[in-house]
Amino acid sequence: MADAWKLVVRFGIRDGCSVPSVRDAAREVSLRFVTGSRRLDFGIGDTLDALAAHDIFPSEIGVDLLIVAAAIYCADTRISRSAHSQNNWTREAEFNIPVSDVDRWIAVTPVLESAVQFLTGDRWRFSFRRRPDGFEQLIRSRARRRVLLDNISLLSGGLDSFIGAIDLLSQGADPLLVSHSWAGIASKHQTLCIRALRRNFTRASVRHIRSRIGFPNDFIQGGGAENSERSRSFLFFSLAACAASASSASKSITLPENGLITLSVPLDPLRIGALSTRTTHPFFVARYNELLAQLGIRATMVNPYRHKTKGEMVRECVHQECLTKNLATTISCSSPTKGRWLGQSPGHCGYCVPCIIRRASLRGLRPPDPTTYALVDLRARPLASQKAEGEHVRSFQLAIRRLGGSPARAAVLIHAPGPLTDVRDEIDLFAKVYFRGMAEVQRLLDGVTTRPYV
User: What pLDDT shows up at residue 146?
Assistant: First the structure.
């Protein structure tokens, strides 16, 4: 039977109030987000300081949202699925979190639980209590000038988010670029992307906020560690929404992601859970926007590239010179440090799902794709489908075969990852982008052979 957890966020050593459990057998753990003074630890306080340095002072509800997101991310990355779930995937936990407005958070609990459970595949429940004495107001200084935030855009260090930033800056926008990193390789590529943008857009300020919210491996005693990180997009979105809460004006938060990854149609039935992400799926984005509206944060998450393939994003990027000269500054690999066991430097493996989609999108580019892939030549020899080098290639081949060149089949398959009821008028466009995206991958894999090795 799966372990049940009771996770109570605490502010300081004096925060020891008793919190009732939904389940008697739940294992209670205190998540001490404030260990010393009144400062929020584990990168949360540093993030608020970085925003203040840009004269951005979030609302208390915005800070609540960031704390809630950090608690979810903590549980997601520090409770092992293999050790604490019934089916090696689904975990059970109840959260109790101190907030500035208990009634408002109780009211949004249903949509919060719906969004997070869809995103991570876990059974998580939330309850809230009033912040302890001395922590009623976490944002104090509002004397300085408040900057105008018409647009906020997510910058992960990946190719799609780099294109999103290029397009916005090329169109004369002045976005706040928001990044999150816990692993060092992501931070490196975010820095390289920002440097490239500042070299190419000298008339713009290119404002950038980087957050390093994360938790040590032993933070939840007995929890272990988990690298699937399905909740990271909730934290990423919440960083941007926290910044957006600094003003009451309506604003857009751009999440640049190609349509094939947005849909994340499973390549085979096993990928519904462990190997299929839902980070920007329309259902999750709709629930997150509903959450923001109910919290009173006047911001909307928008993916302007949801009907484009990655290749179309590349070809239609407004500033081609900036893009092609700086392709190597971006990172797309799902696990860029996996090669360390072979003595390789962090980088693109070349054979995971995001790497394959990236390679397909840059096929035929002039000048050629400068990215270094660990598996450089897909056609030099047959790839072992039972090993990492050929597992995802083979899955793509089977999915392409199942699609069978049929747009009608695409219109059925796109419903597998989750409901599209919030975007009924876009279903035909999603089916078409899925079909075109898989066609890009098919052209890349034409002539590639996979076979099992005993």
Answer: 64
Q: Tell me the one-letter amino acid at 310.
A: K
Question: CA 264 to CA 258: how far, in whole Å?
Answer: 10
- Is the pLDDT at 271 greater than 60? The verdict is no
Report the pLDDT value the prediction gives residue 148, as an integer from 0 to 100: 74
CB atoms within 10 A of CB 258: 28
pLDDT mean over 284-301: 98
The reported pLDDT for the residue numbered 341 is 63
Q: How distant, in Å, are the alpha carbons of 36, 90, 152, 188 from that of 230?
A: 30, 12, 22, 22
pLDDT digits over 333-361, tens only? 988 887 666 667 889 999 999 999 999 99
